[in-house]
Amino acid sequence: RIVEYTADDYNGFVAEVKKEGTPSYSSAPAYKPAYKAPAYPAAPAYPSAPAYPSAAPAYKPAYSAPAYSAPAYSAPAYTTPAYPAAPAYPAAPAYPAAPAYGYSTPAPAYKSYAAPAYKQY
Questions:
Q1: Are 13 and 5 in contact (CB under 8 A)?
Q2: pLDDT tens digits for 90-109?
Q3: Residues 48-97: pLDDT tens digits?
Q4: Its pTM surpasses 0.70
Q5: Which residues pair with 15 in a beta bridge?
Q6: Could you tell me the end-to-end alpha-carbon distance of the chain, in angstroms, rounded to an integer?
Q7: Could you write out the DSSP letters of every residue in the chain?
């Protein structure tokens, strides 16, 4: 790399950089890490399941009907209350229809003026 420095009143301080030749790099081998498989512990050994005897027959308890009869129910134990009759109200009053609304004011009268005369010079 070659750098030439110049300075003048118009451009100020200027540095020109020139590159010559081709860049060369050292050829280092690419990094390739060695794969290491994870080491897992061995699975624990469990004893085999015990052999169970055949299922027992379904249990059905002995059931006998109840020794009492159903209670006798003929009517409710309370009396029906007697409410007074609802009061009678007169019919609603008839109101007259609403008056029709209107607008009867005349439009305002504007004073008109003649346009100024156009004069040619």
A1: yes
A2: 888 888 888 887 777 788 88
A3: 888 887 777 777 777 777 777 777 777 777 788 899 999 998 888 888 88
A4: no
A5: 5
A6: 80
A7: -EEEEEEETTTEEEEEEE--S------PPPP-PPP----PPPPPP-PPPPPPPPPPPPP-------SSPPPP--S-SSPPPPPPPPPP-PPPPPPPPPPPP---PPPPPPPP-PPPPP---
